[in-house]
Amino acid sequence: MFLIEVPGTPIGGEDARENAWVDRIVEENDLSEVTLRFRLETGRNVDLDNLVRPAMRALSKLGYYRKGFPELRSLSATKEFDESSGLTIESGSLPSPSLSLLEIQYDSLPPSDKTQDWLAAWSNTVECSWNRKPLIQPVWIAITARTSRSPVGLLKPIIDGLEPLLGRDPIGSSRFYPNDDLVHWLRINRADSGPILQMAAGIIE
Q: Residue 1: its pLDDT value, please?
């Protein structure tokens, strides 16, 4: 269930106080920054970015976003295992859960035609920047992209190139098949300036 709470005394009366109340309602419903908290059954193996996509599509169908999510500035998502499975949607963004172990700046975003060349170059950059054994613990990934494109659509190709960091999924059948089930915390921000692509990653402690 999607729940909106607006704190404060409701106002009606067509005066300045009513206008302030209207602004408060708008503020509480501002989903330019949104956090999705997924609760999964114990042992469920599903990638976080695959959960984000349908949830955001549902919010778009509800009228919160237009095609391509031009209103969206920051999208955060987490997954945890809990007997009460479900999804909580909140306004606002999440801070990184710990210090980063890896920080990368890159000069391009994945092309819309999803060519393998971009993935190969991005994965090579990750490998050169990481240069260690892949992680085996749950991780967090924070992405910032200077773009007008959909941040939701950028998640999968960027994560697909993280095999040097996450290791290879044991059931992997294609060239780029990271063990992205390890990603339990994810954020992507849309930026107006700065590097085209930045990514930070760390272990969830």
A: 53
Name the average pLDDT for the chain.
90
Q: How far, CA to CA in Å, does 39 sit from each of 59, 82, 126, 182?
A: 18, 6, 30, 15
Pairing of strands 86-91, 74-81: unpaired
- Secondary structure of residue 149 in the 3-state scheme: coil
Amino acid at 175: R
The 10s digit of each residue's pLDDT in 34-43 is 999 999 998 8
The H or E element containing residue 128 is: helix 116-130
**Domain co-membership, 154 together with 179:** yes
In a domain, 190, yes or no: yes
Residues 119 and 192 in one domain: yes
**CB of 40 closer than 8 Å to CB of 50:** no
